[in-house]
Amino acid sequence: MARKETAADAANPGRLKQIALTYKMTRRADKMIGLVLSAVGIVTFGVFLAIGFLIGHPIYLGILGVLLAFLATAIVFGRRAERAAFGQMEGQPGAAAAVLDNIGRGWTTTPAVAMNRSQDVVHRAVGKAGIVLVAEGNPNRLKSLLAAEKKKMNRIFADVPVHDVIVGNGEGEVPLKKLRTTLLKFPRVLTGPQVTTTNDRLRAMGDLMSNMPLPKGPMPKGMRMPRGGPKMR
């Protein structure tokens, strides 16, 4: 019992420190966060306290008002902190990968499965909705990159749906703040074992590509690859 209390006491300072850090980061992008949270808490408590006086139970409603005021403040703080975080990440390289890493249980994400010289990149997420290719960068350059990766996935996984999403604010694109919601709205067509099998095949394919023997140094000029395999002696 003493060990559990000690662990809880040790976790509280870290949790409070994290909340304070989140508040500071949010305040950089949202200068009104302090006033908004104070207003939400005061108004919520005031409404319940007033109702308490009207019905003759100010103490009970006052206590309930404190609890609900704290809950309402926490909800508003969470939403504004999330909005501020997306605002700071938007337009930054790798922002979509950061969102995919926090999409939740049941999803396996692999960042930067395809990339070009201009650093336009395609990430991959696998879940019960199938395979989702998430691209970020210049939409015009991403089309060919995304099409090539989608063609490869369709060729390898004929029985697994492959979706593609381009992150951005243009027509037909998905804003960064709606990326997680968009993926979760895809219909779930795979079972848990099918998702595991798909991940295993992708992992094996990645290991095979990474373990292929590559010649060291530049290839000599005029050298041609043999047409056939090695001949048996």
Automatic annotation (TrEMBL):
Membrane-spanning ranges? 32-53, 59-78
Q: Where is the composition biased (Low complexity)?
A: 219-233
Q: Which Pfam families match?
A: DUF4191 (PF13829)
Q: Report the InterPro entries cross-referenced here.
A: DUF4191
Entry keywords, A to Z:
Membrane, Transmembrane, Transmembrane helix
Entry keyword annotation includes Cytoplasm: no
What are the coiled-coil residue ranges? none
Which residue stretches belong to region Disordered? Answer: 209-233
Instruction: Please give the name of this protein.
Output: DUF4191 domain-containing protein
UniProt source species: Streptomyces himalayensis subsp. aureolus
Q: Output the lineage of the source organism.
A: Bacteria, Bacillati, Actinomycetota, Actinomycetes, Kitasatosporales
